[in-house]
Amino acid sequence: MANPLVDDRGLSFVLYDVLGAADLARLPHFADHGRETFDAWIDLCRRFSRDVLYPAYRPLDEDPPVLVGGAVKVHPLLREIWPRMCELGVIAASRPFEVGGQQIPATIALAANLYLMAGNCAAYGFAGLTSGAAHLVEAFGSPALRERWLAPLHEGRFAGTMALTEPQAGSSLSDVRTRATPSDDHFLLSGSKIFISGGDQDITENVVHMVLARIDGAPPGTKGVSLFLVPKLRLAEDGGFEGNDVSVPGLVHKIGWRGLPSVILALGESGDCRGWLVGEPGRGLAHMFQMMNEARIMVGANGVATASVAYLESIAYAKDRPQGRSVTDRNPLSPQVPIVEHADVRRMLLRQKAIVEGGLALVLQAALQADLAAHAPTPEKRRRAQLLLDLLTPVAKSFPAEKGFESNALAIQIHGGYGYSSEYLPETWLRDQKLNSIHEGTTGIQGMDLLGRKVMADGGGALSILGEEVASACARAARAGVDPLWIEALGRATADVGALTMELAGRGMGGDVDAMLLHSSDYLELFSTVVVAWLWLLQAAAAKEALAEARGHPDMLQGKLAAAAYWLRFELPRIGPLVATCREGEDSYARVRPEWF
Amino acid sequence: MANPLVDDRGLSFVLYDVLGAADLARLPHFADHGRETFDAWIDLCRRFSRDVLYPAYRPLDEDPPVLVGGAVKVHPLLREIWPRMCELGVIAASRPFEVGGQQIPATIALAANLYLMAGNCAAYGFAGLTSGAAHLVEAFGSPALRERWLAPLHEGRFAGTMALTEPQAGSSLSDVRTRATPSDDHFLLSGSKIFISGGDQDITENVVHMVLARIDGAPPGTKGVSLFLVPKLRLAEDGGFEGNDVSVPGLVHKIGWRGLPSVILALGESGDCRGWLVGEPGRGLAHMFQMMNEARIMVGANGVATASVAYLESIAYAKDRPQGRSVTDRNPLSPQVPIVEHADVRRMLLRQKAIVEGGLALVLQAALQADLAAHAPTPEKRRRAQLLLDLLTPVAKSFPAEKGFESNALAIQIHGGYGYSSEYLPETWLRDQKLNSIHEGTTGIQGMDLLGRKVMADGGGALSILGEEVASACARAARAGVDPLWIEALGRATADVGALTMELAGRGMGGDVDAMLLHSSDYLELFSTVVVAWLWLLQAAAAKEALAEARGHPDMLQGKLAAAAYWLRFELPRIGPLVATCREGEDSYARVRPEWF
Lengths: 597, 597
Description:
Number of strands of chain A: 12
Strand order of the largest sheet of chain A: 4-5-12-7-6
Shape of chain A: globular
Distance between the termini of chain A: 51 Å
Radius of gyration of chain A: 24 Å
Largest interface: A-B, 106 and 107 residues
Mean pLDDT of chain A: 97
Helix content of chain A: 55-70%
Number of helices of chain A: 19
Oligomer: homodimer
CATH superfamily of the largest domain in chain A: Butyryl-CoA Dehydrogenase, subunit A, domain 3
Low-confidence stretches of chain A: none
CATH architecture of the largest domain in chain A: Up-down Bundle
Strand content of chain A: 5-15%
C-alpha cells in the first residue's frame, strides 16, 4: 500500500473531536461552510497529493533545478503539476470570496496543506510562497497594486517569492542593504538577495518578488526598511511584458526541498529594476512580521508533514520486515518476527507517533486560534485568541522542526541499513526536515521570541490564557476518565513553568536581559514539552469520550491513549532538570570565551 | 586556515594528562615505545590526513563508486591515496612486530586513526576493514592461512572485508543462510551477502572476504555459523591468480561514506566459489564477537571523528561570520558581531565540544582498557581491564553515534542557511555520522547488550570496577580543587545508576527479562551520560592540575573546565527523570499493539 502521507482518521479526530473545528462554520465569516465542505476540501487535496504530488517526490529530489543561460529550469514534471495545483485552488483557498478565494478557515486549509507538504514539500512550496506574496499584496498593497497583481498570483499565472535575505543580512534583517531610489510612480531597486526560494523557474509567466529594501535616505536599522513588489517582468508600454532587470547569477544547492530552486537574485544590475512600494515606507519589516505567525505556522506544518510521511513509512516497514525473535525465544527454527514485535522498535515508533501527532494538534490548534483571532464574534474573544496564537507561534514553528528531525532520524534507524541508502525514502525526508529549524527564524530566535516577548506579552496575560486552556483540558480529561496521574502531571508542570517564567521575568525587569534570556533555548524546549503535553491530554480526553460512546475506530483511539501515556509519563517529567537549570542560571556557555573553543 | 580535523592540544591533553597513556610504554609489550614514538606516529597520521585524505574528502563524496561490467570502480584519487596510506603502515600499526606490525598500543593507534577518520572516513574505511580482516586471520587462521594471506593484507596489496549481513540476516546474524559444502581442503560457498563495505574496488590486487556461512548439516541458529576466508581471486595451479566465482550483482547507494563502496556479493553462482575455514566450525559468530569490542570502539571513534571535524568547522564559521548585535545593543550603526558572541551560538558550540571531547575521552579510555586487558602485568589487572572494556564498549559504540549526530546537526544549525547547502561541508558529515548508529549493532542492540549482559557480568563486578574508577576520579578531582558540587553530582548519579541496575537485575533474575530490558535504550542513555560525566570530571581534574602547575595552554584548559561544567551541571541532572521512568517501568511502548499505529 502506498504511503498515506497523513493518517486520515487521526487527522479527523484531532480536527473535530479534539479541537471542535466544525464549530468554525458557526462564525459568520465561514457561514457558507460546514464540516462537509471542510472535509471535501481536505479530501480534494489529499487525493491530489497522493495521486499527483507524491509520485513526483523522488523525481524532483533526484533532478534539482539547473541554471541555463541565466534562467532556472525546474523539473519538467512541475509543468504538469503546477497548473493542476492552481486549478484546485490551493493558493487562495483561505482568502476571502471577494478576492477570489474560497474563504476556508485557516485550520482547514492547514489540514489540507499537510497532505500537500507530506506528499511533496518542494512542489507545494511554489504555491505556499505565492500565497504568502499574494497575502502581502492583499493586506498592504495599494488598490492599483492589488488590481494588477492579485488575480494572476491567485490563479497561479504568476508565482510569488519572499526576497528578504541578503548575504550579510539573514537572521539580522535590519541589516538589509538593497537600495530603492524614488523615480516617478516607482522605485529603482539595486542590490543582491540570496536563498530566494522559487526565485526563478520556467513554469509561470512571471515571478513577483516581495523585496525588503531601504529607500534612499532612510534611517539605519529596522525603521529604514520598506517592502516592495518587484516583478521579474514588468508591464511594458505596449501592454505586454518586458524584462525588469532582475537576474539570477547563481543557484544555491540545497540539501533538501530540492525541487524548489533557491536562487541568488541580482536586482538592478543595469540600473533599470523597478519596484513598487507595498504599505508604508519604513514599515517593511512590520508588514512582513504581520504575516509572520502565518509563515511560521506553515513551517511548523511542514515539520509535521515531513515527520508524518516518514513515520507512516516506518510503520509499514516495521510491520513488514522480519528480523530476529523475541528475547525469550531461544529456538532458532522459529520464524523471524516482524520488527514491530521488538519493544525497542515500538519505542521508536511510539516516539515518532507522539511527536508527529502532538505536532499536528499543535499546528492545528495554532491555526484555529488564527481563525478565531480574525473572526471570533467579540473583540475580547479575538484578542484572547490573538494572544494565545502569538504565544503558540514560536512553539508551533520550532517543535515540529526540532523533534520532527529526531523523528525523521528514527525513521532511518527503524529501516536499518536500508534506511541508510537512497534506495529508500527516509533519508530524503531527513534532509527536507533540517530546513525547518533554520528558515523563518532559527530555533534560537524562536526561543528568544518566546521568552523575551511572547510569554511576557500583555503583562503575562498570554500565559494566563494558556493556563486557563490547560485547566479546561484537565477538567475535560477528568470528566472523560483519563488517568488522574496524567492530569496531575500536566497541572504541576504548568505551574512550574508559570513560576519559572515569573522568576525569569523578574530578572529581565531588574534590568538583566542577558540573565533572563540565558536559557531561552532550554526554556523553549521545556515550554514546548508542556504545550504538547496539554495537546496530548486533550487527545486522551477525546479518545476516552469516543471510546465511552463507542464512536471512532478503537485501534486508533487506543493508539492515541498509548501515545498520550508516553508523552505525559515519559517525556513531560524530563522538563524537571531543565526548569531547575533555567532557574539556577547555569552559565557555562555564557561565560565561555571564543578563544576557549 | 584549513580544518585541523581534531584539536591537537586537546587530544594530547586527554591522552597524557587525563589518561596517562605514556605509562603504556612501561608495559613489556610496548617496551620499544615511549611518548616520543607515540607522538611521532600520531603526527605522521595527522599530517597524512591533513595533506592527503582531507583534500580528497569532497571529491570522494561527490563521485561515488560505479559498477561497470560487474566490477566496481572507485574514485580515481583512491589509486593515489591507498598505496600511500599502506606505506605509512596504518593497517598493521597496532599488530605485533612478529606479524609485521609496529606494536603500537591500541590507544595510540586509535588517537592517530581519529585524524584519518575525521579527514576522510571512506578512504580510511578500506584500511580499517583490511585491519579487521587481517586480525581475524591472525587470531583464528591456520598457520597455512596466516602464511598465505596475512602479509598481503598488512601490506595493502590485498584488501579485506567483513561479509556478514544477508538480506534476511542483519541484526539477526544467526539467520545467515550462505552455505559451505566441504570439498578437498576447502569449502564451496554459495549465497548472497549485502551491505559489504569495500566488497569490490579497483585499487588492490585482490579482496579477501571474511564470510559467515553454514556448513552443510550444521545445526540451526548461532551454533551452526562458521567463519570462512573467501578471496575474490584464488591461487591458481600455475601460481598466479584466478577468479573465485565471487560476483557483484549490485551496489547499495549509501547516503554517506560515499567513497567506500557498499556492495551486494553473490558467492558461488557457478558453483565454484572456494572458501577456507577460519577457526573452529560452528564458532564463526564467537570468533567475530571476539573482535567486536575492537570493531565497536572503531565505530565510536568514527562517531567522535565525524563530530570533531564538523565541530571545528562550526567554531571557525562562528568566529568569522558577522550577524546581528548583542540583545542589549539597540544601535543599528554599530558593526555586526561574529555569531560566536551570541550566547545561544556558544551554547551550541559548547554542547558540541562536550559531546566531541567527552566522546574522545570515552573511546580512548576504552582503547586504554583494551591495551591493559591484553598486556597488563598481572592476570588480575588484565581481568579488571577486560571487564571495564566490556562494560564501556556499548557506550563507546553508541554515545558518539547518537550524540555525535546531534552535534553534527548543530554544526549545520550554526552555519544557518549556508549549512543547508552542499556548498558547505557540515551536511556531508551529518550524512556520514548516521551510519554509526546502525552498523556493528544498532543503538537498540547496544542497550540490550549493556543492560542484559555487560552490567550484569561477573555478578555485577564490572559495575563495581566502574564505581571504583569513578571514586578514584572524584578523589583526584577533590585534590585538584574541582568544584565540590560537580564531584558530588557525579557521586550521586553513579549511586543512582547502581541502585537502578540492582533493581532491574532483580526483575531479570525474578524471571521477567522483558521487564528488565523494557527501558534498555533509556538505560543506555542515562548510563552513557554518567560515564561521560566521569570522563569530564577527569578532564576537569587534569585541567585544574595543569593550571596549578602552569602547564599547558590556558585557553584550552579553561575550555575544558567550561565544557566539564556544562556536562556536569546541565547534562548530568537530566538523568533524573530517566532513572525514575526506568524504575517505575513506564510501559506505554511495551503495551502498544502494532495495529494501534
